[in-house]
């Protein structure tokens, strides 16, 4: 699996915070904040430390760029979704959530 051995690409350059930069795209964070030592990607959202640190300063074009890279990373790893959050897993285990339910955020 060559994707494990590659160095993550640099995060897009983050502009200085500004009130006129549109920020309508929510963070992909799922609350599982652990960085894999080999890939240097977060196990929950697949972002790098740099992408996580700069997210608040990114405008929507930069956020879309990061989200596209996350999908590429997941595809290279053979995963089409982020890891199931503990809250979602608990609801699945309790039978209060249909396993086929999709979406980017836990209901």
UniProtKB/TrEMBL annotation:
Basic and acidic residues composition-biased segments: 73-82
Lineage of source species: Bacteria, Pseudomonadati, Pseudomonadota, Alphaproteobacteria, Rhodospirillales
InterPro entries per record: DUF1289
Organism: Thalassobaculum fulvum
Name by which UniProt lists this protein: DUF1289 domain-containing protein
Chain positions covered by the region annotation Disordered: 1-22, 73-107
PANTHER family listed in its UniProt record: DUF1289 DOMAIN-CONTAINING PROTEIN
């Amino acid at each position: 699996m060559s994707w494990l051995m590659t160095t993550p690409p640099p995060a897009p350059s983050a502009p200085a915070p500004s009130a006129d930069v549109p920020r309508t795209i929510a963070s992909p964070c799922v609350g599982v904040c652990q960085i894999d030592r080999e890939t240097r990607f977060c196990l929950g959202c697949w972002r790098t430390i740099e992408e996580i640190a700069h997210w608040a300063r990114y405008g929507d074009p930069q956020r879309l760029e990061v989200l596209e890279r996350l999908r590429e990373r997941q595809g290279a790893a053979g995963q089409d979704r982020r890891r199931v959050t503990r809250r979602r897993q608990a609801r699945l285990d309790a039978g209060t959530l249909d396993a086929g339910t999709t979406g980017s955020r836990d209901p």
